[in-house]
Amino acid sequence: MSNTNETLFGQGANTYANIFTYMGLPLSRDLNDEVDAVVMGVPYDLATTGRSGARFGPTGIRQASSQLRWEEKRWPWRFSLADKLKVIDYGDITFEDAYHESMIEEVVAAASHILTAGKTLLTLGGDHFITLPLLRAVHKVYGKVALVHFDAHTDNEQREEVINHGSMFHHAPIEGLIDSDKSVQVGIRTEYDYDNHPFTVLDAAWANTHSAEEIVAEIKKVVGDSPVYLSFDIDCLDPAYAPGTGTPVAGGISSDKAMQIIRALGDVNIVAMDLMEVAPAYDHADITALAGATLALEMLYMMAAKR
Fold it and tell me: Which among 9, 95, 197, 264 has the fewest CB atoms less than 10 Å away?
């Protein structure tokens, strides 16, 4: 008979049984020396301006990740993730329902705890506002960072209110969390202030007509050797690949191109990452949740390949 823990989590978990964690990873908050990376969920969507439902994103992504467990070595990588990177699932951050400040405080505290312990953090959302408290935690450990941001929207609306998933990258530079001159946004295809925008933009039309290698070259040119926060809003993908999100916009990049880009970011100094805005209620056949789970896995493999 199999060991109980192995049956519930890790190698003993199969596609359909005991889908509790992302990729069947151990459910743990033990940040011991063996742990390299942490997957954390934040089920919050009270800052959304479109269709709500991203609070169910972390669970949806975890459930969809069960379809990825069978492949010991994720194609096209030539190694098993577990051989190079010890990853745990930290579970979801809990906070007082409907209280923004409670979520913000809990996320900053948990992320700070994980990052201070020297672990790479991958957060599953949730609406994109969550990235602001995550950046506050990152700043405590790494100082001002560059932002590599995949999205249909710049999320740079100049709103006075801070709690909004369309304005956190207006407030982040004001708070001194990110370096605008070294930050780049990929896949943008909605209106922004073209003359005064603070970040480099590789818009969707440009990204769709250039190769992943050319896109990555531009990203590296902007960020240099700065510490980088990687944030991926699932609506960067065209709705054909990700219909299950609150603010879908036609004309995005494909899931294949997104994966190619992420795979090639291994020599960028990425210190933390997130995957946001999966809203399962608007999904069909788990298309979006599976895309989110797969992109998150590529991020982990990309970090593992550095070792």
Answer: 197
pLDDT at 4 > cutoff 60: no
Q: Over range 270-274, report the average pLDDT.
A: 98
Q: Is 270 helix (H, G, I), strand (E, B) or coil?
A: strand
d(CA 188, CA 100): 27
Cβ-based burial of 20 (10 A; exposed 0-12, middle 13-18, buried ≥19): middle
Sorted by sequence, the CB contacts under 8 Å of residue 67 that are 6+ apart come out as 15, 286, 290, 293
Binding residues: 128, 151, 153, 155, 233, 235
Query: What is the per-residue pLDDT across 36-65, written as a single tens digit (0 to 9) for each?
Result: 999 999 999 999 988 999 999 999 999 999
> What is the helix (H) or strand (E) element at residue 281, kind and residue range?
none
Q: Are 155 and 274 in contact (CB under 8 A)?
A: no
pLDDT tens profile 176-204: 999 999 999 999 999 999 999 999 999 99
> Nearest-CA neighbor of 112 among 94, 131, 134, 87?
134
Q: Are 188 and 224 in contact (CB under 8 A)?
A: no
Task: With CA atoms as reference, report the closest residue to 225 among 172, 270, 273.
Answer: 270
> Can you say which residues are annotated as belonging to the binding site for Mn(2+)?
128, 151, 153, 155, 233, 235
Domain ranges for the chain, please list them.
Answer: 22-304
Radius of gyration of the chain (CA): 18
Whether the pTM exceeds 0.85: the reply is yes
d(CA 249, CA 152): 7
Is the CATH code 3.40.800.10 the one for domain 22-304? yes
d(CA 306, CA 97): 39
Give the tokens for residue 280. Answer: 């399962």
pLDDT at 90: 97
Q: What is the dihedral of CA 71, 75, 80, 81, to 10 degrees?
A: -100
Beta bridge partners of 185: 149, 201
